[in-house]
Amino acid sequence: MKKALLFIVAFVALSFYANAQWVEQATGFTNPSRGIKYMNVVDSSIVWATAYDGVTTTNYIQEFTKTLNGGALWTPGVINACSGMEPAMIFAISGLKAYCPMYRQTGTNPQGIYVTTDGGLTWTRQTTALFSNGSSFPDCIHFFDANNGWCMGDPISGDFEMYTTPDGGTTWTVVPGANIPNPVSGEFGVVGYYDNVNDTIWFGTNKGRIYKSIDKGFNWTVAAIPVTGWNAKYVDVRFIDKTNGIAQDKSAATTGALVESHDGGATWAAITPTGNVFTNDYTDVPGTANTYVSTGAATGATGVTYTFDGGHTWNDFASTIGTQFLATRWYSSSIGWAGAFNTDAATGGMYRWVGGPLEPPVAAFSSPDTLLELGGSATFTDESTGNPTTYHWTFQGGTPPSSNVKNPPPVTYSVPGWHDVALTVTNDFGTNTMTKTSYVYVGGVGINELSQNQVTVFPNPVKNVMTVQSGSTIREIRIYNIAGQVVLTQTCQAKSVTVNTSGLTSGIYNLTTVNEKGTVNTKIVIQ
To answer: Which CATH class is domain 454-527?
Structure first.
C-alpha cells in the first residue's frame, strides 16, 4: 500500500495575482493541474521537482521539471522505464545528475534508486540489490556530497532497509541491522520525510518516532515524541541546525501538530502555535536563526505562512491565502520556491520568492571612538543583519543628535560625561533597536585623562581565564559574541580583574571594559 501522505485536494489550479513578494513561474507541464509533489534546491539557480496528477490522483505519473536559471525557464521531463511507479522524492547533485527512489503502485517494473546523469533525458536503476525484497518500499535518499550518500526504505526482516554509498551510487552497502534500533510493530517511514544538517540526518515514522544518525547514516538512534494529544503518525522533521528543530504530525487535521527540540531530537515539547500553520509541506529556511515556512492546499487551509520563532508564531503571506500551495524549499532567506498547480505549459505551477530576505532585522553597530576629548568626533558603523530598509540613529549629547543613513557622518561631542547611542532598523518584517548605554565617554580634561583609560588583556588568545588591567578603576566587564549579544557580564571595582571564560565556546569576541574614564573595546580570541 502506498504510504505517502496523499495530497487531500485535487483542484484545478487557481489563479493567483502575484504581488511584490511572489512571482509566478511556469513549470512547463503540458497537462493541466500538475501539482508539485517534492522539490530539491541545488543552489540559487538549479532546482528539480517531481509532479503528481492533481485531477486524477490515482493516475501514477513519473514526471519532473527542473530549472537551471532560477526559474525563468522550467523544463519538464519523464523518468523513463518506470511506468506504474512513483518517485518518493528527488535529490539532485547538479543540473545534470539527480536521483529518485521509485516505488511501485502497479505493474512489475523494479523498485529502487534511479539516476540520471544527462539532465533527465535518460534514467537507469542503480544495482539490482537495492529494494528488491518483496516487502521493500524506498522512502528517502540523500547525498552529503557528490560521492557519499544514504538511502532508506521500510523495514524488512525486522530492520529498516538502509544503504550507504562512497562513490555516488555505483556501489551501495547495506547498513547492518545491529546499527539500527528495531522498529515497533507496524512502523514504517514516509516518502521524503527526512532532514539533514551536515553529517547528521533524521527521518520520521508513522509511529511518532524520529531516527537520527550523526555519521552519514552508518549508526542510528531513535527517540519517541511522547506528547499528549499527538496522533503520532506521519511525523515530518526539520532542523535549523544540529540542535534546534521542529516536527509536525501531518495527520493532525489541516493545521498539523507541532513539537520542538533543543537537544538534537533527544527530547521534545509541544508547541501551541498562534496563526496559520499548514500541513501540505513545511521547511526550514537555511541561514536564518529560526525561520520556517509552511504551505497549504486543503480546503480552508490554503496559502503560505512563515514563522521567525521556531514555530510558535505564524504569519500569513496575505496575498497567498486562498490559493493552493504545495511543496516548498528555500536556498536562503532571499531565495525560495513554493509549488502549485499549473494551468498549461506556459502558465503557473511554481512561485519564486522575490520579496527580499525573509527575516526580521537585528540592529547592531560599533565604533572605535568610545573615548573622546572634549570636542572630539566619533564614527559609527552599522553591523545590522536582516537587510534593513530604514535606519534611525540617536546620539545623546552629540552633533548631529540623530541620523537616518546606514553609516552616519562623524558625530561631534562637546558635552563631557557618558552618552548613550541607539540604532533602530526596520524592514518589511519588523523593527529592532539596539541601545548601548554609556557607550561614549567624553573627557573634560584632555588627552592626559584618556591615557589613564588604557586597558591590557592577557593572555590573548584566552583558554579559561584572562586578566583585564586598566589605569583607572574598572566598573564592569562585558563580553559580546560576533552577533552582538552579551554572553558574559561581570561587575567589579578594581584596576585588575580576573575573568573566567571557560563557559564560552571557541571563537572571536568583543570585550568591553567600562571604567571611571570611559569604555574600551578589545577583540579577544577564546580557544
So the answer is: mainly beta
